[in-house]
Amino acid sequence: MVKLNEQTREEYMNQVMAAAMKGNIDEFRFLFLELHPADQTDVFLHLEENERKQVYEFLSPEEFAEIFEGMEIEEQLEIVSELNGHYAAEMFNNMYADDVADFFNELPADQSAEILQAMNKEEAEDVKELLTYEEGTAGSIMTKEFISIKMSDTVGDVIQQLRREGPGAETIYYLYVVNDIGGLVGVTSIRDLITSSDDEVIENIMSTQIVSVHVTTDQEEVALLIQKYDFFAAPVVTEHNILVGIVTVDDVLDVLEEEADEDIGEITASRGSTDMTLTSAQAALRRAPWIILLMFFGLFTAEVIGRFEETLQTVVLLAAFIPMIMGSAGNTGTQSLAVSVRALATGSLEKRGLWKTIVREFSTGLLIGLMSGAVITLLLTIFYGDSLLGLIVGLSIVFSLGTASVVGSTVPLAINKLKLDPAIASGPFITTLNDIVSLLIYFTVATTFLQYL
Q: What domains are there in the chain, each with its CATH number?
């Protein structure tokens, strides 16, 4: 198997397609199938439609299945429209059930039903089962292709079973031991088999300390569990402990990427619009509601400034530092927001404790405020020759940053208590809220010292 780099990709692709266009199937298959599956997918996606049709003739549905699995959903939707019904059904028969279910979730119900009708009954039933689970749960991302064995089996029996069933399983590192009704009772590994004699009974080498997840467990919890225990896969069971599937580490990587994208979208108030395949109009429609809402929040900022109009008229120079104080508070609050959302996502908040987290963020914000306040007080004293003005701005920075840290850390925690996604407390929302709070602090401090200016 060869691995392409950027220097050889175009040259190799030209060789592959030259063989295809000449109708030299043997040369094409030799060159193309020598590639790593990821490179096969890359090469295929660079082809024009007429060239892709040539590939369908030269590759079996089983061979094309691995290429199809490596594509993004949007690419799969485009490619499947080019395939005839029989070829597509055979391709889906040779894909892992969870990958097929993920794709079918993006299809209209009538279209997926038509494909399921054309698939082999056993494979279709597995996909139908996965489609019944709520999206975002362990059941919806698990695969049905796993190896289960019995306690009474010998190591030699299991090795023979692996030779028969292993090629169709998504992973064979873990082997799950079940009883007569399919209940999960133990787990063993390839390492255990290799280091045991052929006549050793599985019951003697299996572990009964099993870490499993329920079919309804949130996918992010599953990902964190696999990350915590460094598993390659985790078994999925029903409420009666019946083993129904496994979640593999490659699925977990997809989940973590999906959750990260979702959190970024929430924190930046751009959820649903980060996909670069969206048109400008679609992205604008998804972003606009947050921006309009935040615009109304901005009216409160204007109201605060209006309330302290007399203070501003007395010392007009105070207005020059409003953007700096608002910006510093907003940035500090966003940092604390990121820390809280991350702590909730990784479970570290539970280990540290709610109040310790809040106190830690408040202390951090206060220390940053003290450092920033000292610097700005010194600078204003030097450049404006007014130490009192420097003190007013410096104290405002200290109190604003300390308060902003508390706001940034507590709002997502409060939202989490309401069983909502803490990332909803987006960066722009926290920034706007801290703008209002920091202005109130600034003008309160300034008004207090106004008689001395």
A: 6-139 (1.25.60.10), 148-259 (3.10.580.10), 280-452 (1.10.357.20)
